[in-house]
User: Fold these one by one.
Assistant:
Number 1:
Amino acid sequence: MKYVIINGSPRRKNTWKMVEQVKSNLNGDFEEIHLMKEKIPLCNGCFKCIVESEEKCPHRDIIKPIVDKMMDADGIIVASPVYAMNVTALLKNFLDHTAYFYHRPEFFTKKALVVVSTAGAGQKDVAKYIDETLRHWGVNKVYKITYACGGKDSIDAKAINEVSRKFARDVESGKLHNPKLGDIVFYDVWKAMACSNEPIEADREFWIKNDLINNDFAPEIKLNPLKKAFSKMMFFVLSKFIK
């Protein structure tokens, strides 16, 4: 198995200790990406990645190699401590550079693990934010490990081991899970936008090229009958409003 680790912490303290504990439960090769070392310029909000295509991002030469490694991996690990009740600026800046995945999701066959630590509070909300972002990207299943160390230089290995082993078994199984209803709604929103009378051309080309526009969900995922019917209904309704 191949795992890529996106480390959003500028230090190697508790968050990284948690990641190292996670790694001890996984069998495979690891690609570590420490965002502090990548020196990604701040996203300037030009919207080129969304409106024109990700290839037009002015920082594409830095972002693309990271994205390529994520696409090549079987499992994705995203780690961040809580900074001011949110992810670190390093991770937020990277996520801002990948905003186009909200329109053009690509990770339907991937599993992910979110690792968040805090000295005080906010760890569950931060993990939820990363989880929602990854699900918008299309990620099939997201696991979460959160830990409040209370300012102590320590980690809870037992809780980390339990979740990381579940993550490892899932990645190794190759099983693809049915999406949540909310994820199907998001899919149908972007699909309806790609089918609209005035779509973002980069979106339309992507949805046609990857045969997403003709499916109720990503072709790799076999929806059960109820979710298939739900997706058809949602797309019908949304396409009436998004013209």
Number 2:
Amino acid sequence: MAKKTENSKVKKKRDADKLIAIYMDYVLEHEKTPKSIYKFAKENDMTEQDFYQYFGSFEGLRKAIWDRFFENSMTVMEKSNEYASFENREKLLTFFYTFFEVLTANRSYVLYALNEHGQSLKGLDQLKNLRKRIRSYAKTLIQDKNSEKSMKLFQQNEMIFSEGVWVQFLFLLKFWMDDNSPAFESTDIAIEKSVNTVFDLFDNTPLERVVDLGKFLWKERMA
């Protein structure tokens, strides 16, 4: 019975992924979001009930897209034999590199979804679930680092670190959106420098990295 339930969950997730793909294709083909679930379902040979089996609204579907980006990134990383042996700094670097590779594979949709509402914060509503996931992932990293420190005095604040990683992600996301370099090489450099800065800040040796990051950002801005 447990196996049957598990297979049912896998099938439901697979079907939900198909619906996500249909939605993303619709947005890119029509250059707009669907006006109603009824019309969207009808145009794609399904019923409203078919849609509601997986998502309660378009907003829920849009949040799920970012969930899938995160899940796909974690799956790719965890398949690597080396990932488990990485230091936390290397793990965060790997996460950002992998996540932005996933975003790049879906760049047209991501740019549309984030630019749809201009500078309005409404466009960030779809990132609410992703924020929880990234902050949770960051907490596991700092928890591992804290466990290595015998004295509580030298342990770092998990909440501050996890929120810092989220803010760092938002910075990198905006950087990637504006990046015109070949193969988004500048984004890769920004990832490396920003991750090194964050960890050095928590290791109390920030000055050199902060200056290095500042020089890079100034160069990019003036280019």
